[in-house]
Amino acid sequence: MNRREFFYAAVLLGTPFLLRRKPVVLSPEKLEENWQIDSDEEERTREVFARAIHRALQEGWASRPIGECMGEIATFFIGTEYVGGTLEGKGPEICRVDLTGLDCVTLYENALCLARILKKGRTSYDDFIAELTFTRYRKGVLTDYTSRLHYTSDWIHDNERKKVVKNVTRDLGGEEFPVRVSFMSENPGYYQALREFPEFVGTIAEIEQGINKRKHWVIPRKKIKGAQDHLRTGDIIAVATEKKGLDYSHTGLAFKDEKRKIRLLHASSIKKKVLLDTELYRYIQSVETYTGITVARPLEVGKIHGLTNQFA
Asked: How far apart are CA 218 and CA 241, in angstroms?
């Protein structure tokens, strides 16, 4: 189980000292020994990618604000089957992608990265993989399993530093949210990579400690109805949980419908597909263990507050 597997049973990780870790370099023979990519699965994913890019170019999605571009992309995936754990596999960490089945994390991650390459005027599959690598891994660098931003709170923190998103939760009336993550290091048996590479468990524990030292913000469930009028299509919604050892237990995208109501666009493990659900505040109220939301707003590519984005 990992961040994606977490979200159909939990969630997951991060900290700056890992930037000093050296990448794991393996020979092609060793890589071949440890993992295989399903060529049929990759071909199907490339076909979905090509259809999404074709539709985006045909309908001019890139000309719209990045959040609205993400909304168009996410609605393209409505009806896609819910599948968890698609980023996991044997052997060393690689940047995996599967557009034929999505969970709540891979939906917003893929929508964001597709929107970012479209805004950059790049439309190749390799461009997409490079963008996924940049957002998925600490400081945009894949070293090993521990470099992946498993915990959503860590993903938001790192991608805010990279100028990919802005955490607007506090600006929307959010309150301080004490995070005490520990699930991964306390339950390594759930994670294939931690079973295969037990030496990573100590690093994960250090990462969790780093996350717990930061300040985090959440809009409490009782305030979401008032705050949602200030949300925009494409805002990434992380749903906080009271479950021990976790920070968030679900994610999705805000989507303003034709009646200007903010609804949750997400991959549902209960309904087994991507769908445009009910109003956001109603959805949060429907689950007793949901305590509030954190909002990460996508930033336009190229310029951030008038400054060139050096990471774009």
From this structure: 11
